[in-house]
Amino acid sequence: MRAHELTTGRTFGVTFDHGEDFFDALSAFCRDHEVRQGYIPSFIGAFAEAEIVGTCEKLEDPDAPVWAMTHVTNVEAFGAGTIAHDVETGSILPHIHVSAGLKAQSADGRTSHLLSAKVQFLSELLIIEVVSPNMTRPRNHALYDVPLLTFGAPE
């Protein structure tokens, strides 16, 4: 387990507009407001289309992460995540999970890691900045190269 007391900074209410790319809008928000890291305790919204982690294939190694994606359209979404700082590029490394209901299929649901999304009508977020410690996401080579949230100086 990794744990660290967090010193939080500002809290923002943010809305992304119809047609915006979710991750581009999130990156622009962070750049414009100089947010390097933080938490998204929850957000609601709709996506015209999204890509989430998933597959219908038989998994060769059920313990390994799934790197494939599935495409969904016209979904209502509820999500949460973290924003870590990318030391190499100075940009952000978001890690967002969503539960998404497919509107045209009786709100049949999908839940997974969000890879991309185009906002449909709106997305409403609460973003809490973390000012310390540094939150980074180095890849753990011993664990399938999965990027894991780390507190403090990167290893």
Plain-language structure description:
This is PPC domain-containing protein. It holds the Pfam family PCC. With 155 residues, the chain is mostly beta strands. Helix content is 7%, strand content 57%. The chain is built from one helix and nine strands. The strands form three sheets. Strands 1, 2, 3, 4 and 5 form a five-stranded antiparallel sheet that branches. A two-stranded antiparallel ribbon has the order 6-9. Strand 4 and strand 5 form a beta hairpin. The longest helix has 11 residues. The two termini are 16 Å apart. The mean pLDDT is 95.
List key phrases describing it:
two-stranded antiparallel sheet, 57% strand, single chain, 155 residues, 1 helix, mainly beta
Question: How is the secondary structure organized here?
Answer:
Blueprint: E1 7-17, H1 22-32, E2 38-53, E3 69-85, E4 92-102, E5 108-132, E6 135-136, E7 139-140, E8 146-147, E9 150-151
Antiparallel strand pairs: 1-5, 2-3, 2-5, 3-4, 4-5, 6-9, 7-8
